[in-house]
Design a protein that fits this description.
Layout lengths: L1 H10 L9 E7 L3 H14 L5 E7 L6 H9 L5 E5 L6 H10 L5 E4 L11 H9 L4 E5 L12 H18 L11 E4 H7 L10 H8 L6 E5 L14 H15 L6 H25 L5 H24 L8 H29 L5 H24 L3
Parallel strand pairs: 1-2, 1-4, 2-3, 5-7
Antiparallel strand pairs: 4-6, 5-6
Helix pairs in contact: 1-2, 2-3, 10-11, 11-12, 12-13
């Protein structure tokens, strides 16, 4: 194997040097790229004390097993295998916390980030920057062979991040950067760790503006494996932007829960009207509508609001039962508060809205604590 050859030629001296930099590589099904990436890092980081920490989300293609096998011979090749957890941002956070290096570089495991820029990123930190960003959008950088649609979508998302977070960094969506440990640790209390864009999270979570250096690089095409870009990536990016803007006032998860509840109202009314159209009694139609709407809310919340705590298998059944019970008590609270306020000469719509809000907050709080507890 390639790494057996590299042991004698390039890797062994690294283990005798003081640790200067760690390269954190989040992976999911990147076994085909692991050895090539280690070989490339050994060339550009020659003469430095470095280690590479792969953080793998329990890839079914054997990425963790491969890294672990290499790591038995090369002590500066390490693996953090996560079971039951997914997400690039949270993987990067765990990888940074798993190393003692004073400088941490982050790059993808698909070989699309040019390792040639790594020394310049690291040297920029040594030169006084808090964070050095590998950017595609300044002179010398480029997006490679992207088609027009992907390029347009990337620039739109980049601009949205710049506007929403008030940053002038040219490539806040970059997944290729280096950061000083103490600068990163200051961001930890406010990090969201949502989705795939950890850089913009770090920039927005720092209690004081970070000194940023921008290093151009050419984005490359993927050599092996499959791209992770999809609807989920876009949705989680939007959630991250929301969390870093309005999230400081209202929890984003609560907003998502209320959005699902709003859709549930339409489901309730649609079912009610349909069953009434068959000639059924109102109480029968209303009961069926309530039961259907609660089930709809549960399954949508399970996939959308609580995707990071998604229930599966037998837990799904228990979760649905608890959600029905919580929603029933929420309905009682809704009616009770609304009736109490109406009895104190409040306008009817004020009483109604108060009841709805109390019921919704009850449902959210209890669902988070019981149905989708961590």
């Amino acid at each position: 194997m390639r790494h057996d050859i590299l042991i004698a030629d390039k890797f062994l001296p690294v283990d005798t040097l003081p640790l200067e930099v760690a390269v954190v590589v989040p992976t999911l099904n990147e076994a085909a790229n692991v050895e090539k990436l280690i070989e490339k890092l050994s060339v550009v980081l020659a003469g430095r004390g470095w280690e590479v920490v792969f953080v793998d989300d329990n890839s079914p293609d054997g990425t963790s097993e491969l890294v672990r096998r290499i790591g038995r011979k090369l002590r500066h090749v390490r693996i953090v295998q996560r079971v039951g957890r997914r997400g690039l941002s949270s993987a990067v956070v765990e990888g940074i916390l798993a190393t003692a290096a004073p400088v941490i570089a982050v790059m993808d495991g698909d070989l699309q980030h040019s390792e040639d820029a790594l020394p310049r990123l690291i040297d920029a930190i040594a030169g006084g920057a808090d964070i050095a960003v590998g950017t595609r959008y300044v002179a010398g950088g480029g997006i490679g062979e992207w088609d027009k649609d992907r390029a347009r979508m990337s620039r739109l998302a980049t601009r949205a991040g710049q506007v929403a977070l008030g940053t002038e960094v040219s490539d806040p969506m970059s997944g290729f950067f280096a950061v000083r440990r103490d600068a990163f640790e200051r961001t930890l209390p406010r990090l969201s760790a949502i989705g795939f864009k950890i850089l913009i999270d770090i920039l927005a979570s720092s209690p004081a503006p970070l000194k940023v250096a921008e290093i151009p690089y050419q984005f490359r095409i993927r050599e092996a494996g499959e791209s992770k870009i999809g609807a989920r990536v876009i949705a989680e990016y939007a959630e991250l932007i929301a969390d870093k803007t309005i999230g400081r006032f209202v929890p984003v998860r609560l907003l998502k829960f209320l959005m699902v509840g709003g859709l549930g109202v339409f489901v309730h009314l649609a079912v009610l009207r349909t069953i009434l159209g068959t000639g059924s009694a109102f109480i029968t139609a209303q009961t069926a509508a309530v039961m259907t709407a609660i089930a709809f809310n549960f399954f949508l919340n399970n996939s959308f609001t609580y995707a990071d705590r998604k229930l599966k298998g037998w837990r799904l059944i228990g979760g649905l039962a608890s959600f029905y019970a919580i929603s029933a008590l929420g309905a009682v609270a809704n009616i009770g508060i609304g009736t109490w306020m109406a009895g104190h000469d409040e306008r009817w719509w004020v009483a109604g809205v108060a009841g709805v809000l109390v019921g919704a907050i009850w449902n959210f709080a209890m669902s988070s604590a019981l149905t989708w507890r961590k």
